[in-house]
Structures are given as C-alpha cells and as structure tokens.
Write a structure and sequence with these properties.
The chain is an alpha/beta fold. It has 3 domains: 122 residues, GTPase HflX, N-terminal domain (Rossmann fold); 163 residues, P-loop containing nucleotide triphosphate hydrolases (Rossmann fold, 3-Layer(aba) Sandwich), CATH 3.40.50; 59 residues, Alpha-Beta Plaits, CATH 3.30.70.240. The protein contains 13 helices and 14 strands. Helix 1 links the parallel strand 1 and strand 2. The chain starts with 8 loop residues before the first strand and ends with a strand. About 2% of the residues have low confidence. The site of guanosine-5'-triphosphate has 22 residues, from helix 7.
Length: 414
C-alpha cells in the first residue's frame, strides 16, 4: 500500500525537550510511509491561537518547507481545525496531526471486518470535527497519509452523510460487541480463566503470545502491528489451563476516538481475570509508558482487574536478567529467547489462585436476580434445588467480586 503512494516527504513538528517522544513520533511517521526530511522542535509556552506556533517558528518552518518541498507537515501537538487550516495556508502543504497519523496507521493495519469497522468509525468521528471548510484551499489528494483507509471515500462528502455513516457503523459494531459478550459469557461458564496481554505498542506482546501459545501471530518491529484480538488455550504448571489473549497495544495520547471505537476489543482486556502488563525494559521512557498504559487501563474499566507487570527484552538490558532487582512481584523475561518464561507461568498460576475463593451459598426462592448475578460474576460449580424453593450454589469467584457482592446483597452461607 505504502509503496504505491506518491512521494510522502514530510517535515515533523514536535515538542522540544523530549527525545523519547520525538523518536517515537519519527518512527510513527515512518511506519505510515512518510519520508522524514526534517524535524523541527517547538516549545509552546504561549501558543498563538491562530496557528499554535508563534511567528518566529512559523518562519523557520517556511524556510524548511521551501528547502524540502514536503507534501505534509506532521504535527505532534493537538491542533484545532482552524489552526490546522491556517498552518496549511501559511505553509502551503497538508497538515496532519497526531490523531490522524495514528488513525492512518491503524487503517493500514486493519485486516478483519471488525478492525476495519472500528478504524473507519474512529476516522469518521475525527473527521466530523474537521469538516468545516475542508481542504478546498489545497489541491485534493487522495490516498496520502491521514487520508487513507476505509474512511477515504467519505472525505469529501458533507457532514450529514458522515453522521449517517457513523450511525450505521455504530449499529454494526453494536452487533459485533453483542457477539463478543456472548462469547465471553460462554468462556466464563467454561473452566478457564482469561489472561490478557496488554501494554505499550511494540514491547513484545505478540512475541510472548507466540512463545506461550505456540502460535504464529505476526510480531514485526513496528508500532501497532497487532489490531485484532487472538485467543489461545495454554497450559500452566500443574496442568491448569487458561485462555491467553493478545490485543492492540497502547501509546501515549492514544486518540479518544480510537479508545471509543475499539471498545469491544478493549472490553476483552477489562474482563480478564489477570492482565499481564508487558513492559519494554530497554525503553528509556519506561516509567512514563507504564503510567500511560495503566491510566488507559483504568479508563477502559480495567482499573480493578488484577495485574502482573512483565518486564520484557531483558536480553538487551545491560547485565540481562542478573541485573534485575527490586519489584519482586513483577516478572522479568525475554520473550525472544525464552528466559524467565517458566517463572512467569508459575507467577500467573499463583496470582490466579490467590484471587479466587470457593463458597457454598444458600439463596431463597425470591433471590432469582442474585442467582443470575452470581452466574455472571463467578463460576457456579454445582447447584441444588432446595425442597421448599431456593437453591444452594457451590461457587468460585474472585475475592474482589465476592466481597463486593456480599457487601450489597444478602448472601447466606450454607
Ligand atoms: N531483544 C528483544 N526483542 C524482542 C523481545 N520480545 C519482542 N522483541 C521484538 O520487539 C518487536 C516487537 O515485538 P511484538 O511482539 O510485535 O510487539 P507487540 O507488543 O505485539 O507490538 P504491537 O502489536 O505492534 O503493539 C519485534 O521486533 C520483536 O522481535 C525480547 O525479549 N527481546
Ligand atoms: Mg502485537
């Protein structure tokens, strides 16, 4: 797809003083097919409401644009639609913001029907905020960065058509979500706990997934290689089986449109019995990334889900696994060469059993609603009907879920 596109020469505009962020943005732009001709940094102490950057910086950009004749300026700041337009007029090249860039990469990677629907929905929601005036002052270009993907055909239609399309996509995705929920309910009734891999993009989630599940999910060295969730059954030490899922990765300032559109995928993470938060131990901005991921987890309703931090790529940190100390709750591994993986599995088994308890409870005939709730929240191992109406249930559920219910409902111990 990228190869067939016209020259995508780009200049980047990024915040100054954050090298890790700049490098990440350059790699994002490159993986969308941009040839980065130069990067300009700016500090936005007093942003100009018209163009965001002030006149001196605008002049610097003008000179760069005259030198390199870029097709686009890719900006790692949040731009209002009018700032975007004003910059385009001043520099005579297309301006793409961080959100459009990330949406564009997602559009390139989406393979499944669901993935494509989700990306299109996110693109259209983003676009609908920007339909005032459009790009009529620039030559219309199709298929460039920020203009690709399934949403492309809608770009020049008016707001009304876009919102109609958004509603249609929402309905289709509702159907997808309902099917997923059914699948989850079925899984819950089965014996297996769900363990979800989550984490920043490109940290090695799919590599770990392949190692644990003997699968062959693609794991390229580029951001957002995985979009669609995959689930496999894996064995833990002592024979216990669990389901393991691999999903889309996160990034700092993940566009809200994407979080909303990928709801059904992300719900999968929130519904897990244990989240393995995979961390690239070799990343210099590790602490910031950990915060960002755990913030998004909270945002998608997974804030209370038990979580185990897994520091990966231990093979490329100085001293390797030997250098590891501190956080003894966490696991240290190399998904690539397999070091530490056995210990990780033992930790997973330990965490899963620590979080669950078994109880036998007695419900009266009038507590049908609570009975249904217990089926949804936990695992009912056995149910007996009592002679005078009501039931006793042998129940296994997480301590957290049980205590939450017991504090609100009248659950009688049998
Ligand atoms: N050195 C080293 N490289 C690793 C390790 N694990 C993964 N990688 C590399 O990191 C890159 C990204 O790996 P993936 O498994 O695709 O990462 P991911 O988290 O699934 O990424 P996305 O799906 O794009 O979010 C690949 O080039 C892997 O070979 C590791 O333990 N050590
Ligand atoms: Mg992946």
């Amino acid at each position: 797809m990228i190869e067939n596109l016209p020259d995508q020469r780009a200049i980047l505009l990024v915040p100054s003083g954050d090298d890790a962020r700049r490098l990440e943005f350059e790699s994002l732009a490159a993986s969308a097919g941009a040839q980065v001709a130069g990067t300009v940094t700016a500090q936005l102490r007093r942003p100009d409401p018209r163009t965001l950057i002030r006149s001196g910086k605008l002049e610097e950009l003008r000179i760069r644009c005259a030198e390199f004749a870029p097709v686009l300026l890719v900006v790692d700041f949040t731009l209002s639609p009018s700032q975007e337009r004003n910059l385009e007029r001043a520099l005579n090249c297309r301006v793409v913001d961080r959100t459009s860039l990330i949406l564009d990469i997602f559009a390139l990677r989406a393979r499944s029907r669901e993935g494509k629907l989700q990306v299109e929905l996110a693109q259209l929601r983003h676009l609908s905020t920007r339909l005032v005036g459009g790009w009529t002052h620039l030559e219309r270009q199709k298929g460039g960065i920020g203009l690709r993907g399934p949403g492309e055909t809608q770009l020049e239609t008016d707001r009304r058509l876009v919102s109609q399309r958004i509603r249609r996509l929402e309905t289709q995705l509702d159907g997808v979500m309902a099917r997923r929920r059914l699948g989850r309910a079925r899984r819950k009734r089965s014996d297996s706990a769900l363990v979800s891999l989550a984490g920043y993009t490109n940290v090695g989630k799919s590599t770990l997934f392949n190692r644990l599940a003997g699968a062959t999910v693609t794991a390229h060295d580029r951001p957002f290689d995985t979009l669609d969730p995959t689930i496999r059954r894996i064995g833990l030490p002592h024979g216990q089986e669990v389901l393991l899922s691999d999903t889309v990765g996160f990034i700092r300032d993940l566009p809200h449109e994407l979080i909303a559109a990928f709801n059904s995928t992300l719900e999968e993470i929130a519904s897990a019995d244990l989240i393995l938060h995979v961390i690239d131990a070799s990343a210099s901005d590790q602490v910031e990334r950990i915060d960002e991921v755990e913030r998004v987890l909270e945002e998608i309703g997974a804030g209370d889900t038990p979580l185990l931090r897994v520091f990966n790529k231990a093979d490329i940190i100085p001293g390797g696994l030997q250098a590891v100390d501190g956080d003894c709750g966490a696991a240290w591994i190399s998904a690539l060469c397999g070091a530490g993986v056995e210990e990780l599995l033992a930790k997973v088994a330990q965490r899963l059993s620590a979080g669950r308890l078994r109880r036998t409870v007695r419900l009266s005939a009038g507590q049908g609603r609570l009975r249904a709730l217990l089926y949804r929240r936990g695992r009912v191992l056995r149910e007996r009907l009592l002679p005078g109406g009501g039931w006793t249930l042998d129940l296994e559920m997480t301590r957290r879920a049980y205590e939450k219910l017991a504090s609100r409902e009248d659950i009688g111990a049998a």
